[in-house]
Specification:
Blueprint lengths: L1 E6 L2 E6 L7 E3 L1 H12 L6 E10 L2 E14 L6 H15 L3 E7 L7 H13 L4 E8 L2 E4 L7 E3 L7 H8 L8 H7 L6 H17 L3 H16 L10 H12 L1 H11 L10 H10 L10 H9 L8 H16 L2 H14 L4 H11 L7
Parallel strand pairs: 1-3, 6-7
Antiparallel strand pairs: 1-2, 4-5, 4-6, 7-8, 8-9
């Protein structure tokens, strides 16, 4: 899709590759698209959209990075602006659009002012900002700003790109956290743990590895799968793979090729790649389903921290910052010293993109 907006002092067009070619005409339509882009309705949030030149169409730009931070009455505007600074330094955009999604008591104007200052200090050529409240938006860059209605999603062609890709925004970020806190009975947790112990006895037998990989493949590739109703045997095989570092890294290498697991033996990685699809070949909900599978793992310092860290890595690779942060926070809460979670935390804090 392309973003078309005249911003002083020049015509400013941006394109986000990979979702389609429908145009977003103006900041109002961008506001309508962002919940689909983020996966939920932002509230009390600063959302930063970084734009860079599109190599395929030099006169246009494309979205290179979208970042969000929460606004609270206790938060200092300068601190939140500095929290977004790594995004400027990492993406080096030629322009940014910063939007303040306000609540009943939050006023985004001080925050937007601080972000604009940080952006200009970082050398951003064009800075555009706006306020959003109750399905209305305010163009802060207009000589005579006033509240205007946000276009309905059905009237924004670019929204269809996300819908076709399987994206339907949740009501809030909190809804992501809620769906990752399922009520697991004591009996189910005990059955899963017993199945995991039985599975681990079979490792490193190839038939056991294949069994676990097939469970992960089904979760990633089938949009209709609900991890919360998988049988304890299937979840137990997943737990067993997560508890074995070599298989954990092979899963990551297969599903999300990149930095993690580069030293894993070729045979295990090759087997994983034969069975597990890459995230680029599955629907947009795959990383969330994997996180829901991680939520089925009985809490403990070993496999559950590993499962959550893997979920965070897959979400980070997929570009879902909110899910990555939620999942990685769970991993660090279980085991603050878990190395993979620490690495992901560093990548998230510095807006580091995954190596593909």
């Amino acid at each position: 899709m392309t973003f078309q907006e005249n911003l002083q002092p020049e015509a400013f067009r941006a394109a986000r590759s990979g979702q389609g070619s429908a145009a977003i005409r103006g900041v109002g339509q961008l506001v309508a698209v962002l919940p689909y882009h983020l996966g939920y309705q932002p509230a009390d949030s600063l959302v930063l959209v970084c734009l860079e030149a599109a190599p395929e169409v030099p006169e246009q730009s494309r979205i290179s990075l979208t970042a969000r931070v929460s606004m609270t009455s206790q938060a200092a505007p300068a601190e939140l602006a500095q929290a977004l600074a790594p995004a400027f330094l990492r993406a080096r955009p030629r322009a940014v659009v910063c939007l303040g999604f306000e609540g009943e008591v939050t006023d985004s104007r001080p925050f937007l002012g601080s972000v604009e200052e940080v952006a200009r200090q970082a050398g951003v050529e064009h800075v555009h900002s706006g306020r959003v409240w109750a399905q209305n938006w305010w163009n802060c860059s207009s000589p005579e700003p006033s509240w205007e209605p946000v276009p309905a999603a059905r009237d924004v062609p670019a929204v269809a790109d996300y819908v076709v890709a399987g994206t339907h925004p949740l009501a809030s970020r909190a809804h992501i956290e809620q769906c990752l806190r399922p009520a697991i009975s004591v009996e189910r947790a005990a059955d899963i743990s017993a199945a995991a112990r039985a599975f681990q006895v079979r490792l490193p037998d190839a038939s056991a590895v294949v069994q676990g990989l097939q469970v992960i493949s089904t979760v990633l590739s089938d949009p209709l799968v609900d991890p919360s109703v998988l049988c304890p045997r299937d979840v137990g095989s997943f737990v067993g793979l997560m508890d074995w570092t070599a298989s954990r890294d092979a899963v990551l290498q297969a599903a999300a090729p990149g930095l993690v697991g580069a030293d894993v033996g070729d045979s295990l990685v090759s087997l994983a790649r034969e069975i597990i699809p890459t995230l680029s070949d599955v629907d947009e909900g795959a990383a969330l389903r994997f996180a829901k599978l991680a939520a089925q793992v009985p809490v403990g310092p070993g496999s559950s921290a590993s499962a959550w860290a893997c979920a965070a890595y897959l979400a980070w690779w997929k570009g879902d910052g909110s899910l990555a942060n939620i999942a990685n926070d769970r991993a660090l809460a279980i085991d603050p010293e878990y190395r993979l979670a620490q690495l992901i935390d560093s990548a998230l804090r510095t807006a580091m993109p995954p190596s593909r």
